[in-house]
Amino acid sequence: MKRDLRLCLAVFLIGLSLFVVTVVRTNSVPRLMTFGNEEEGATSGWVLYSDFLMFDREFSVNIRTNNTVNVYILDDGAVKQWRIDKSVNAVWAYEDVVAGVFSEQSNGRGGYAVLVYLPEDSVTVIKVVLTFSGFEKDLLTLSSMMIGIGILSTTVLLIIEQKNKKT
Questions:
Q1: Phi-psi region of 155 (alpha: psi -120 to 50; beta: other; left: phi over 0)
Q2: pLDDT (tens digit, 9 = 90+) per residue, 77-103?
């Protein structure tokens, strides 16, 4: 019985720890990406900035540039497709943008990449900042379930132990 009680308390404490970590991670450090073709034509065309993780929460995309550009956010599958045949299958697309802030909601965890089109006829410098905010819904759900299971199972075990002592 004591082993079961320790297991239930461990589940509760792990859930509580995960909950605390989730709350601490509500606001993240902005992810800054800078693209440019300082020498005209040097890196004009498509530029892929890959390998960042996205979480199941809200985020904003802040785009600032000195020219009209296209910015696409691709998931893992779209990045693989881009590398194979250069087709753009973006999860989020911002076309003909000079400046803007766009708020989005991610639907899941995973690796993502930013694909930018820099015009070939002029020097273009672009800054893209991704800022995440809010709770990671999947971690919040998991931690809440673990806390609930830990409390419920501990309570049930204590009630069973009390009944066994009375008899």
A1: alpha
A2: 898 998 899 889 999 999 998 888 998
